[in-house]
Design a protein that fits this description.
It contains twelve helices and eight strands. With 246 residues, it is of the alpha/beta class. The strands form two sheets. The protein has a six-stranded parallel beta sheet with strand order 4-3-8-7-5-6, sandwiched between helices. It has a two-stranded antiparallel sheet with strand order 1-2.
């Protein structure tokens, strides 16, 4: 399918069902894929982080994880089918996996990945979680993390270090993890699953007001919210599909 471009970043106009079908197919094939979940803030980051933008242009699947991407695609006379969030994708995907598709949860604060794993396994007793580890994306911590993941031999690797660190980590080390067929950077998904962070009500998510919910609950995120809600649309208004020269 033709990809949609915003600020030089390709986005896949898939529905939630189509994204899940693609990831399930990737997990059946013995080939490594990197799936990303771009949002407004990540596209702003890509404007001045050329390594990150280059990575977004190499990944197998970029699912649109914010309503703002849909609005700006429409403004540039392009189309994105619907918002496909990372947390909903992970939750729905893991409810359908069997023991034949082991998974590993990497990232978040200590103990959060374990709580997220328990939540996922309570929804699907057949889910096989072969490991959880907080770790860090620092290069000096990579050897022990890679050893742990290789020993666990997962097919699905979920990494929650936040963007761009999580996806740059995947890009750097995926080839050293031969069992992994799909690696996804999934931001705050573990926190939502573990209950350490609460999602905005469904009606706010539908209206694109999730940023307001986060601002009220976490005022310290105002810089990130400013980039996502103000800077991102201004950049698209100026540059459209093309990558800015910043």
């Amino acid at each position: 399918m033709d990809r949609t471009f915003l600020l030089g970043v390709p986005l896949d106009p898939v529905t939630r069902t189509e994204a899940l079908e693609m990831i399930r197919r990737f997990l059946r094939e013995e080939k490594q894929r990197h799936v990303m979940t771009p949002n407004n803030e990540m596209l702003v980051e890509a404007c001045h982080n050329t390594s990150f933008r280059d990575l977004l242009n190499r990944t197998t699947l970029n699912i649109p994880d914010s309503v703002g991407l849909l609005w700006m695609a429409r403004f540039t006379r392009q189309r994105l089918s619907q918002r496909v969030t990372g947390v909903d994708t992970v939750t729905t995907l893991c409810t359908s996996l069997t023991e034949e598709t082991p998974i590993f949860l990497l990232g978040a604060k200590p103990g959060v990945a374990e709580s997220a794993a328990q939540a996922l396994m309570s929804s699907n007793p057949h889910l096989k979680v072969t490991g959880c580890f907080a770790g860090t994306p620092r290069e000096e911590d990579a050897p022990i993390i890679l050893t742990m993941i290789r020993a666990a031999a997962p097919h699905l690797l979920l990494v929650a270090y936040g963007a761009p660190a999580q996806d740059l980590w995947i890009d750097r080390y995926l080839k050293e993890l031969p069992s992994v067929r799909v690696a996804m950077g999934i931001g705050g998904t573990f926190d939502f699953l573990a209950g350490t962070r609460k999602r905005a009500p469904a009606w706010m998510r539908r209206m694109g007001l999730e940023w307001l919910w986060r601002l009220v609950r976490e005022p310290k995120r105002i810089g990130r919210i400013w980039r996502a809600v103000v800077i991102f649309p201004l950049l698209v208004l100026r540059y459209g599909k093309a990558a800015p020269r910043i």
